[in-house]
Amino acid sequence: MNSIRLKNISKSFDSGIVAVSDINLEVERGCTMVLAGPSGAGKTTILRLIAGLESPTCGDIYIDGQRVNEKEPRERDVAMVFQNFALYPHMTVYENMGFALKMQRTPKEAIREKVRTAAKMLEIEELLKRKPYQLSGGQRQRAALGKAIVRQPKVFLFDEPLSNLDPMLRKNARWQIKDILKKLNATAVYVTHDRREAAMLADRICILRDGKIQQIGTDDQIRRNPANEFVIRFFCED
Tell me, which fold does domain 2-77+154-236 have in CATH? Predict the structure, then answer.
């Protein structure tokens, strides 16, 4: 069963800009789909549409077979990891990770167990009492990922979460995210403009340009049989 399905999705803004046009995309349960393309390709708009932060101009969005167009973000059971980590500066790592569960009135003991399990998986147990300003960039990234993991959502959405890290930290973080998503058997949509990042993380890749899909496939399929000149220039040339 497909965990995410976008059917004939388009999004236009009041300014007249068409951000995405007639998008048809399916993400199987347990798979990572990477949305790749240059700035302005529509990657983040698609992510925000799935999350419910934007409403489509036309088309339908399904999560686990259920149409969610009219559902609020909190009702869609998705967790989003942002470029800026989105950690509350006045809270400790523990409080940040457990905040969503607290708002859901989850019992304290259950919150403690979920946070500590996620912290162990991310190797940040010793950081739980610290606040974000006391963390390195890589540590903040792991704390933000932990904040998403404890919710045990149906879908993880990543909006270029590694773009603020230096190259070495970024490389290590890619492997960590890939390993964790596989351990969780998680369904994920990941936005990047970095071809190497896409190739490392993706089960399948969707290449976008000007709000339209250019090609969908595995890294090997796209490199062996690129759909057009843009795909060659953007994705296949080293």
Answer: Rossmann fold (3.40.50)
